[in-house]
């Protein structure tokens, strides 16, 4: 075995690799090259492998000046046996961060690969794993057998390809922490290394912190949470919070945050989820797709924490930690009087560019100076001084009054460009220091914070020398770590001159300048533009003084160059636009600075939560490890003893199993009660397509291949794949399913019974002939006699001939429908084509049938016969019998698959896609049959569909139900010939069942989509033994019911449709219409109107005939003895409101047209006494409004007589006064309301109506001749109440509310961030 390794780092010397070949015992040279000439050098070394090796083992390669020229082609000899691999440590734990290149042979085992990687990266075996990630799966080489090679993973030698792998590092102390979590809470051992106070809190020099998984677009939340967790004072304060369920009516934000922080501190996983915290926010999945500003999140988060801490021992801790105060002042320059207002602040917003300036502030100190710089008020903008009592020049600005313990600074990078009228992101470079001196920005030092910060409560008990810490007054000193030689990041000045560490600088500045010294420990970075981007954070660990990059789930070490890269760029051409957006500084105070709690410092009330967190974390870790080392696949199977149908179960298959081992493993998972495995070779796994419901391919010749490799070996056409467990008899052989096979959903049909008998799936290779396909069909269905095949070919069905020709010449689709019937007699192909066309075009419809009482009382045999309808499923109409010329099939015919299964059928037959199924015909109209000569021939049969104009409604009346008899003849055809000459539509009633309603049965109707309604009506008439004029067919779509009146309409055009309903009632004839009758209750507030019944009418019916029809149809009116025709009033219903009244001797054609009566409705009024209206009598409705109480009286109908002797307005006014009982001295006003009956308008809209005076003479024209006048009336002198004391807006009708909302609708804008912590009400 020969292993050639190449290092891409030119600055390091790599020790020579040893050759582990016992036959040659020779040592190969090490090549030290740059990245661009790597492939050229590797090629040269490999081509000279069999030649003589130089005495000197080091090959010095001079870099070619023209390295970009085309590389010479690789030799096609033995060199193609090599695999080029690049391996990199992406975690940042190891010293070597560059990718290392390796060249392995195809025979190199995993054990040899681990030895080479261990030597190259200088890491012990057993402390790392190698991960290979392809498009679909991730492989951990450490979990695979040592003697396996890269080729078992599907990695093939390729001179033009380089494979990438990554290292997964497992430090020794991290493994100790896993053991600690498994054993539970244990005290710290005295013999433990003094540099590590607790194995559950820190992993020594190689500590890798826990990341947070991104939930869609929550990177801003993850960065903010990491900043909180790395703040020791906040973390300790949160751990001291005692959660009391039911203490508040709001959800607790601290409780899920405590769980999250415990997981971050003690989890054995690399990253954890934030789902529980997000759920506490009240967010659904769509909220996680909205990215918000991290500063906005900070403000809302702290506001909710402050509210939750109130009334507890932590009350005021958020204000002491994060809030400071600013003085907004104005100083008069003449009297020097200062007027100021003090406001608290959480974040200091610093400008990148000063107002009106195109140059940015180069440093953070310059931005702070601009922030506190005063503005001069002079000229026209002078300050009006109250002491000078005149306008005076003044200074206006901001100054810090009190600085917070944690200083949060926002760099305002998002601004609005008023010139270009657009938002933009400022990516200008702003350098920020590691140590910030704020003494010059505050006049008086901040008071003692020990009490407000509750230091005595938050200080860990293990902050002493005996516990392994240097001192609680030295918070930024690194823990002693013999394995960590990295220097802590210096300040900008100290790093440049090599002067002093940060701790010494802060101590010196505090002693000389003052106490307001701040240390940088967090940088929130935004990468992207104004419309999209990504947040991540650079945060310092106070325990070790090291910086880390927290980028969602990935947490790795950060260098000084990384942090300086967050300063920003000088050019807007930078596509990434990466720059710091928010900075976190902590005040340096040796007496106040804390370190975080450790395991033995935890408050007692967190004991139970800690135990639960460890158990949950362990379970999640085991699940992740299981997902990493297994392949989760849905497995389909049949249990012949319990359920012969296809069942599904999710199975996790270990990746290290071969195909044979995986088959036995899946069998044990699917049949756990079976102790003994089936005989070898009687079970296997196949790839199954769940979308198409077909077997994709079988894994032949893959018995010794890994299951993950075998699955990936033939990429599926669809992603929705599964594994199918097949079983067979030991005497039979498995069929071979190839990826490029034609798949035929084969159905055995019976044209005489008009049904499918059996369905199965058959695979055939494109090279197989039609004769071989027929033999496969005969073998699968156990048929010995010849068969006739019909298949879908180029979007239509045809008879397949040409037995000696391969199937590839037919240009079949991947999945096809194949129908066959035993026999080859004359005319069979015609009948099969006709049946298949109609069967595949048929639709499955649920139909509810209301039957007469005598039909429901029939015996069971009659019911069974009606349910199955085994005979006469082809309906023949009188027009069909007279017609001989077929019509073309409508192109919008819908094809629905059959779901029938029998015997050992694999699955249900599925119909083809929606395609035109037009069969070609010759000019004479006879089928064209040509025998196969040199090419396959296809028989095209003309479609047999009713070809004459369907009869009108008169033709399908009860008198024409019977089909005219056909004269008998001696040579009348029978059997297949009779079916070939028969014409009609496919229709079959199946699966009859009863419903809760008596006399109503439910059928499953399979019907040809081209069937007209009159054919279905005729078949229903035979089914329930009732005349067609005595039932009506309704279409039900959701909650909407529509009567189907046009009998010539085809089933396929009735869309959408959920089900059909056959109701026993009169069917409308020509000129008839169905009229809905509603009861009008004038003066009733609770029930102003209600549906009564519907009647069949014509336009020529007069009012008396309409009243008689209503009395005859409504049982409610029949039972009321006080109702008669003289006390009934009929009026038109127009848009839910009462309209024109039918006078005596008037007809429906006076108020309806031919079109409007089809959907017409009328109101029926029941009067107390007879009241006949003449042409000079009119009715109007009014409602009295009381402004002082906000009450609207019930509706009142008034009848007026107008003979034109006086004005109509005066007549209406006198009638209103008479009805209200008021005198002429009362001034009345009226208004016309909007909306519909009964006009329940809100108080606000009533106030805004256009009121006009009714004092004579009335100037407003009032039209009452169509009986539609509606008025609101009020007393003009009645004083109204305030608007807010009236009734709520809920009484606004729907149409009015829609109008109001559309006017006041605000423009769409980006949704703001909200935390919905309201407690949901308890459910009963």
Strand tally is: 54
Shape: flat
| Beta-strand content bin | 15-25%
Largest sheet: 8 strands, mixed
Rg over alpha carbons:
44 Å
Cα(first) to Cα(last) distance is: 73 Å
Overall SS class: alpha+beta
Number of distinct helices: 30
What are the segments in which pLDDT stays under 50 over at least 5 consecutive residues?
1-78, 171-207, 462-488, 490-498, 856-970, 1283-1309
Average pLDDT, rounded to a whole number, is 74
Specify the helix fraction band: 10-25%
Describe, in plain words, how this protein is organized in 3D.
The protein is 21% helix and 25% strand. The protein is of the alpha+beta class and 1324 residues long. The longest helix has 23 residues, at 607-629. It has 30 helices and 54 strands. It is flat and about 110 Å long. α20 packs across α24. The two termini are 73 Å apart. The model is unreliable at 1-78, 171-207, 462-488, 490-498, 856-970 and 1283-1309 (pLDDT under 50). 31% of the residues are buried. Strands 12, 17, 20, 21, 22, 23, 24 and 25 form an eight-stranded mixed sheet that branches. The chain has a seven-stranded mixed sheet with strand order 2-1-4-3-7-5-6, with helices on both faces. β22 (533-541) and β23 form a beta hairpin. Residues 885-904, 950-963 have a biased composition (Polar residues). It comes from Orchesella dallaii. Residues 210-588 form the USP domain. Keywords: Hydrolase, Protease, Thiol protease, Ubl conjugation pathway. Residues 56-65 have a biased composition (Low complexity).
